[in-house]
């Protein structure tokens, strides 16, 4: 393959696009790989489409290798199956909906659990038909509230999604691990630096899942890791539950005047000023903060919820959201306060919270609030707090919830040391779906005993177009992109410099020899373009090996440069083709 | 490649789908290639997707061979560019429109002229950048009024569309002919029987175009051909204009009572009964029929139109529609009659038609109505007709129009003999777009003299998913599909029959040898399935070469069957792999 830049549909740009913030967005547009067509919607230019297809090829090969079979579903999908699983509503504004000329409701598929489930139901009926894994590489749609970062989070994107179908949880684990193994191979071949983290299942309704996150400072996902190798999505981190604390010598709870202390900070100051302790000063962590929210369920009903957590921690909205899914979290409004007169704003305490208490509002606490822990908290009267309130003695919450923020230094749940936070780009997702979809859509097979059982499913995704951006986030420098060889748009960027016909003749010959040797060549054969511009373009475009045919030709050499290391060497023209073929063809 | 039927996601069906009328629809569903997801929307199962990708590969190779560059646009497109070319309105109900969460208008792309034009405008500015041909292979959408015939006319389908950009009409012709040549290669490789016909440009706004029609009795398109090689879409046929006729001896026109003759048939009977002629009987072709319609223009305005044509011909709606595009033809309503009191229903004649006459309605006649032709037509009074009315002497229409039906036996416009009609499936389309899009969207380049000129464009389409169905329409028998080798899902369908382990061992070995030789094998390794069922499946699925390992094994032979000819031969097991490899690998 020889791509000639004299005719290639490509114009590199000097300036970053105005709306671009992350390197992959800037570089992919400047180097002529993609171009914006609408917010979050991009066109792929020839070099970009080549890279995208290279990524697809890797994904396809590894999926085929585990026996997954490729199919292709429509992107335009009827409403009914998504009704059956409640996702038509649950997706809210996040999907594109439309009607056909007859008024029938359709959506643009964000993911295809329903369709795969129905298709397997249509064709299969026995445990003998299983296991089965199906996949597709397809254009998907999501109406992101804030499409940004170019193709890193677009509204139209390419995804590989696959689904496994098994007769039992044990059989499912084999399918799950096969996908996990395939994903490791895919991300290794893509040259990505990544981490596999425990994840919640999100809107997918499953019970366990892992994410493949590409480590990137510009990543949208925060995850935590420990020195001992624990890694998890923040939503999935569980809090180690401390043992109960003895409270025999804790005095009885006593309410005190604490005027003008509606915040944790003012309260702590007040405590230290008016109720000093001998052993240590009061801290935010000694207080119990009660936060009110409303949970809106898929059926539209609104349920108030109180969350009690140590005063030194905030509620993490994403973690809370993950706990209540598929319901969504909404603010507790003025109207809600009006409906619950027992609540005294700024001074709310467990005295009124809980299903058996005056407010009747369900009261869940952070797992650290174990029996015997001792708190300062609201006394449910303006300007007053309770001191020495002991969990289990003076109040009993309705349960616990993982809604508090995770902080650097928190212990990993598996005891592998203190957590630190890092950022990543979600590139892959492997989900245990369980029997949710099979039950909602009636996918059952006869088991070995002739009994109908629902099928156990898994769902697995790779962001194919996103991978192109993630690779660039992982692999670039100030001058441009540095492609890993297997996804690069070419193996060699051959640059002919100067005005000398002999240079172009030698470069033409070399291009032909390389092509014959199976080397993919991007050939800068433009006349009248300065060497400086050509060099800059080659660094920006990011083909891993750059070969310059120019002045050295007088000495019978061409320059071979490694885009990654910047190392250069001169190679005799006569040896160049075979030298490069050895270098680049695996 | 070995596809094992024991694990392949495939269930062949005994019965035709209830909604299927044409062979490709029946067979592709029954043989497990596609499956309906919604009206006109299909999922591709593993074998089907393999065939689709084989077709894509052929298209891609031939497009690359003429130097066209592959890109990939979004399918979800913003409204604005389609506003600029009026197509947002012109498409009417035929496109899917939707809004995003912010209320922005989008459509699902039916074709991409606007986007390509804007992209080239974005990157290119000089005649030196041209010629340029870009293409994509992409999922497209059309909200068909009557989706039918399976993937032959779906609402979501795969198309290859390409666009050429040139600085002059001469340069354009080269691009056009290059595409034409590539299409001939593509359709030849797809094993299709096809004809290239002259076509009107339809909604595309061009001035010349050709269609590649696959000849098929179930085709939706009617075309005509002559013994001398003329072929055209019915919409594109032009009527040879006869020379003027001398009318010196024609008596003056005379109105006669013709009571109760509102139809041509009743009129002819009345004429023969009451106005007999010496030389020959009156015929429908002696009468001039005047048909009224309304033309609705893109701006919403309604213009009445009268069409005069010989009484033995009907108006062909498609031909009429092609003449008035982008306007659409609507019925002439009661209200329209009420607004034009000069019109006497059933007895309308040229006396009131035409822009200068009492009705003021534009009056266009069939090209056969030349000067001197002599007609019987309405006298604009109830129950009366005019006889001996001579065109050019007694009335003058406002112009001519190609709206009459084309009939077998009509002369070809190029004098190559009488036309006959045939049916075909539109598979490819090559259009001269001219400067319409460039002008609407401002795509100009500097020419050699430094002058800004609009770019001349061409647009070229191949129905990729439709090709899969068209191939089946062309190539099947009662038992099933017969794939041309290059698109077949496998080269060899290897069938192991019986219960004997030795058979399966020999078949396993042969499958491995074939795979090693680069032969793609679909291997029926199912146990406990009768030979009859396996043979039926192999005929239905349609792989071109079927190899049976069974009883013959005792004699050291396997049976090799040609799916097309039905010919069988026994081949020694030991030679089978090399024999087959020679047969199937080009």
UniProtKB/TrEMBL annotation, chains A, B:
Keyword hit for Ligase: yes
Pfam family name, one: tRNA_edit
Stated family: Belongs to the class-II aminoacyl-tRNA synthetase family. ProS type 1 subfamily.
Protein name: Proline--tRNA ligase
GO MF, one annotated term: aminoacyl-tRNA deacylase activity
GO cellular component: cytosol
Highest taxon listed in the record's lineage: Bacteria
PROSITE patterns registered for this protein in UniProt: AA_TRNA_LIGASE_II
Principal subcellular localization: cytoplasm
Function: Catalyzes the attachment of proline to tRNA(Pro) in a two-step reaction: proline is first activated by ATP to form Pro-AMP and then transferred to the acceptor end of tRNA(Pro). As ProRS can inadvertently accommodate and process non-cognate amino acids such as alanine and cysteine, to avoid such errors it has two additional distinct editing activities against alanine. One activity is designated as 'pretransfer' editing and involves the tRNA(Pro)-independent hydrolysis of activated Ala-AMP.
Catalytic activity, EC: 6.1.1.15
Aminoacyl-transfer RNA synthetases class-II family profile domain boundaries: 35-484
Keywords, alphabetical: Aminoacyl-tRNA synthetase, ATP-binding, Cytoplasm, Ligase, Nucleotide-binding, Protein biosynthesis
BP terms from Gene Ontology: prolyl-tRNA aminoacylation
InterPro entries for this protein: aa-tRNA-synt_IIb, aa-tRNA-synth_II, aa-tRNA-synth_II/BPL/LPL, Anticodon-bd, Anticodon-bd_dom_sf, Pro-tRNA-ligase_IIa, Pro-tRNA-synth_IIa_bac-type, Pro-tRNA-Synthase_IIa_type1
Membrane-crossing segments per the record: none
Subunit structure: Homodimer.
Catalytic activity: tRNA(Pro) + L-proline + ATP = L-prolyl-tRNA(Pro) + AMP + diphosphate
Notes concerning its domains: Consists of three domains: the N-terminal catalytic domain, the editing domain and the C-terminal anticodon-binding domain.
Broad EC category: ligase
Compartmental location: Cytoplasm
Cited NCBIfam families: PRK09194.1, proS_fam_II
